[in-house]
Structure to design on (942 residues):
């Protein structure tokens, strides 16, 4: 049974490519078998029977299918059948038995029954049985006098002696030996000799007979003529052997094919395939074992670029079974398969005429990976294109001549080198580009090319279209057919005119090296000396180039120097390709180390880029070293003098700057004090008379009120004047004017007081003062700069004053520091609005004023230190600028707007005069903060 449903698991695993057959084909196949065949399920019911079994049992297939032995046999006999079948199911063994069986016609048969258990892919078990009719009772008549029943041993021996006489000699002794060892059942095959007939093969079975009480009653002889059976078996074996041989050949051919082969039967079921198909499509073994063409098609479609087109072609071919097809399919992976499909039909006749479609057995598919072929084809086309481009674009002139040495091919390089176009040269002889004095030599080359058949190389002078003489390097090869006939010559020409000139220049360069006064040497990568010019030989004390070639790099240095060279210089040369610097070489005669200026570099191969030699250009710098040492000593002395002068100049500069600034501030203080004094006198005069004036005015207004109350009807002249001067408005506005004058006078007094506080002329010496008062006076002076304008809003002053006692300091100088720092903060805030005007404009537009701020914080730290922090929220100060803030004359402001002295003087005032510190803390974009730290009480030495 070849149907996979009735194959056990091991058989399936051993032959994954076994065919599936349709149910109709399966029935046709088992019905062609003469032996009864039956299949039972696990419930011992018949599910598959052939016609021979139905005839043997005496019932139709419809009566038997779905029934069991209990439905047709006596219960005792059915139970025996059930037990034997159950043993096959549970033990999973093959069981063979021989039994006597009486058929529906009452004929007793000696049958051989073989039963096996099989399991399908889902685990269902089935029992498959076959029955072989060993012998019929009436067949014994072929051998006279030996059939029948014997009831005792004597009769048995008599019957056996009669039978013995019919046996041929080779079987006679075997028969007698087996007879002597007779058991209850005995089988053997012998050749019998009938009376007056030809010997024939016979199967003999002697079966012990028992009555209903189980008592032995005799033996039954059963004889069977097996001539036809053996002949048929022999033919079957021969046919099976031939079929196995044919299948093996076909399978080997299929597996040896370079194509993936797939055979689909007429029911669209996978009938066969080879391993190449699985490899090409990377199909899982489990999928192929399903034999499902639809699942396999789904797997293939997922890998295709155009699955719809592929599927349409497949369906078309299945709908037109008479057609064959060949096309190419493209996979997502980039592979290309050649697909060929043809119907599988029975062939008839000597000319392989195909049978009608009724003999259609399915379709065979061939798949071949032609990716590399397509790539090679594309590469061949590309190669041909490249060859054509190479001929056209190569710098070599490529010329093809016929046997008369007339031009047949003339590429662009030839046009460029010789100046003639292709149209001008086609068909022209070689003489047009060969000067008169070289034609004899060229003729000799031509004769050799056409007669001897070998290639040639020559260097010739040639003439261009514009009359120039050039030097050409010619490579000539005859074009020879397979039969040895020369049909032309191909020439490649390289214009080496420039190379010739370069060779001449090279000769000059060689002469330059030979005559150079510097050491010039060449060594291999391994350090073996290849060349050393005369100056180099002289410098290191060698007599000749041959003597130098016996040396290596290590010989040119002392052991210590070479170790340093290998450790420090060699890695740099290999890393960067060169090294330049001073080193020392050894004199071979004296052993003295010579100080040298070296240029060492690698020479790389122009094609591979790999270094292949070292070059050294070395100069003896002994004298220069001595001069340099003297110069360095002199320079050191001069440098020290310059440093001393620079230091003295800087001190002088600082002193001068401080004196100038002090003088300026002193003058400014005197000016401010004078202005304040001059303003103060008239202001005091005005301020002192404001109260009496207010009282007098009030008295006059009261008097006027009395007059109006007692003389309500004045004379007309008074009434007219009252209206003219708007007496009522004058009475209400005059007190307000007096009050405004008082407010203005108070403001003037405050300004004068701030000017006097800032100038501190009365406090030129160190004195304990209120720091906050000095800061406030400085802010008062800068009030005008703090106000807003069209470029920026008002600068907000945030005061975070701590509780400070009076601080000993030079009040005027400290106020100068506050003035400088606050002025710089205002400048920084204004600069931020100049640099970022969009921020300011946007803020004004949406009425969200960007608020520039200056925050002033004071704090008493520890017991004898006061900290004043002045911070702005401007653009901040870069690190490189911050490093130079306190340097004299350093400024970032435009020319004319800053002297660069404000912070330098402030630094000197804080650090030198007050023994404190001044520090700037700033990051770009985060504003700047100046932190002043001074002692609360100054030491007398300060």
């Amino acid at each position: 049974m070849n149907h996979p449903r009735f194959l056990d698991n091991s058989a399936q695993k051993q032959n994954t490519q076994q065919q599936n057959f349709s149910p109709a084909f399966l029935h046709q196949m088992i019905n062609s078998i003469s032996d009864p065949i039956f299949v039972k399920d696990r419930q011992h019911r018949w599910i598959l029977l052939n016609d021979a079994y139905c005839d043997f049992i005496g019932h139709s297939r419809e009566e038997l299918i779905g029934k069991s032995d209990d439905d047709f046999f006596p219960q005792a006999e059915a139970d025996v059948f059930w037990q034997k079948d159950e043993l096959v199911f549970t033990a999973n063994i093959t069981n063979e038995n021989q039994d006597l069986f009486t058929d529906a016609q009452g004929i007793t048969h000696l049958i051989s029954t073989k039963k096996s258990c099989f399991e399908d892919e889902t685990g269902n078990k089935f029992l498959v049985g076959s029955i072989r009719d060993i012998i019929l009772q009436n067949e014994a008549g072929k051998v006279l006098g030996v059939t029948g029943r014997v009831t005792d041993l004597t009769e048995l021996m008599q019957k056996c002696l009669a039978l013995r006489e019919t046996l041929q000699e080779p079987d006679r002794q075997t028969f007698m030996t087996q007879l002597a060892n007779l058991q209850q059942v005995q089988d053997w095959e012998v050749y019998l000799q009938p009376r007056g007939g030809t010997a024939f093969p016979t199967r003999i079975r002697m079966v012990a007979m028992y009555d209903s009480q189980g008592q032995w009653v005799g033996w039954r002889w059963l004889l069977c003529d097996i001539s036809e059976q053996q002949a048929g078996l022999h033919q079957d074996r021969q046919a099976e052997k031939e079929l196995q041989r044919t299948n093996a050949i076909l399978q080997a051919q299929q597996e040896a094919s370079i194509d993936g082969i797939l055979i689909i039967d007429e029911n669209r079921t996978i009938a066969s395939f080879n391993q190449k198909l699985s490899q090409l499509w990377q199909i899982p073994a489990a999928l192929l074992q399903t034999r499902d063409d639809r699942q396999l098609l789904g797997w293939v479609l997922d890998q295709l670029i155009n699955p719809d087109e592929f599927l349409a072609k497949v369906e078309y071919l299945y709908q037109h079974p008479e057609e064959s097809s060949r096309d190419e399919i493209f996979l997502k992976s980039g592979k290309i398969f050649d697909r060929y499909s043809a119907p599988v039909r029975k062939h008839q006749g000597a000319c392989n005429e195909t049978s009608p479609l009724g003999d259609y057995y399915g379709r065979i598919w061939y798949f071949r990976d032609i990716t590399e072929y397509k790539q090679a084809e594309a590469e061949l086309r590309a190669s041909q294109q490249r060859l054509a481009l190479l001929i056209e674009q190569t710098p070599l002139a490529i010329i093809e001549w016929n046997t008369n040495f007339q031009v047949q091919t003339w590429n662009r390089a030839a046009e460029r080198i010789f100046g003639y176009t292709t149209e001008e040269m086609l068909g022209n002889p070689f003489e047009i580009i060969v000067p008169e004095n070289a034609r004899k030599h060229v003729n000799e080359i031509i004769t050799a090319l056409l007669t001897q058949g070998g290639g040639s190389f020559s260097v010739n002078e040639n003439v261009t279209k514009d009359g120039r003489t050039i030097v050409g390097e010619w490579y000539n090869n005859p074009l020879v057919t397979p039969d040895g006939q020369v049909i032309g010559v191909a020439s490649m020409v390289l214009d080496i005119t420039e190379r010739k000139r370069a060779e001449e220049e090279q000769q000059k360069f060689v002469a330059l090296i030979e005559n150079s006064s510097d050491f010039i040497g060449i060594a291999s990568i391994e350090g073996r000396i290849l060349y050393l010019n005369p100056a180099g030989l002289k410098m290191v004390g060698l007599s000749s180039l041959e003597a130098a070639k016996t040396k290596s790099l290590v010989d040119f240095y002392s052991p210590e120097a070479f170790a340093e060279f290998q450790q420090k210089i060699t890695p740099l040369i290999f890393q960067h390709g060169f090294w330049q610097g001073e080193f020392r070489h050894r004199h071979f005669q004296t052993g003295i180390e010579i100080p040298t200026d070296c240029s060492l570099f690698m020479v790389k191969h122009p094609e591979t880029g790999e270094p292949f030699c070292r070059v050294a250009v070395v100069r003896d710098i002994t004298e220069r070293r001595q001069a340099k040492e003297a110069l360095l000593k002199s320079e050191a002395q001069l440098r020290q003098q310059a440093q001393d002068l620079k230091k003295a100049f800087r001190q002088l500069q600082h002193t001068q700057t401080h004196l100038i600034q002090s003088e300026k501030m002193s003058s400014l203080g005197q000016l401010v004090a004078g202005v304040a004094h001059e303003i103060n006198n008239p202001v005091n005069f005005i301020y002192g008379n404001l109260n009496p004036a207010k009282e007098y005015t009030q008295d006059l207004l009261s008097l006027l009120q009395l007059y109006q109350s007692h003389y309500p009807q004045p004379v007309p002249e008074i009434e007219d004047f009252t209206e003219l001067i708007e007496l009522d408005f004058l009475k209400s506005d005059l007190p307000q004017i007096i009050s405004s004058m008082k407010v203005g006078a108070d403001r003037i007094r405050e300004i004068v007081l701030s000017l006097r506080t800032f100038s501190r002329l009365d406090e030129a010496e160190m004195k304990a003062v209120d720091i906050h008062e000095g800061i406030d006076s400085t802010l008062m002076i800068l009030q005008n700069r703090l106000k807003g304008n069209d470029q920026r809003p008002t600068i907000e002053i945030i005061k975070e004053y701590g509780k400070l006692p009076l601080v000993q300091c030079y009040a005027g100088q400290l106020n100068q520091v506050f003035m400088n720092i606050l002025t710089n903060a205002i400048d920084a805030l204004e600069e931020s609005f100049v640099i970022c005007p969009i921020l300011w404009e946007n803020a004004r537009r949406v009425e969200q004023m960007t608020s520039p701020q200056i925050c002033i914080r004071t704090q008493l730290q520890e017991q004898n230190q006061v900290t004043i922090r002045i911070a702005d929220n401007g653009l901040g100060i870069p690190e490189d600028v911050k490093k130079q803030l306190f340097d004299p004359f350093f400024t970032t402001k435009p020319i004319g707007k800053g002297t660069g002295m404000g912070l330098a003087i402030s630094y000197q005032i804080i650090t030198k005069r007050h023994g404190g510190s001044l520090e700037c803390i700033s990051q770009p974009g985060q504003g700047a903060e100046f932190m002043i730290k001074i002692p609360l009480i100054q030491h007398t030495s300060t």
Remarks:
- The first helix runs from residue 9 to 14.
- The chain has 29 helices and 33 strands.
- The chain has a mean pLDDT of 80.
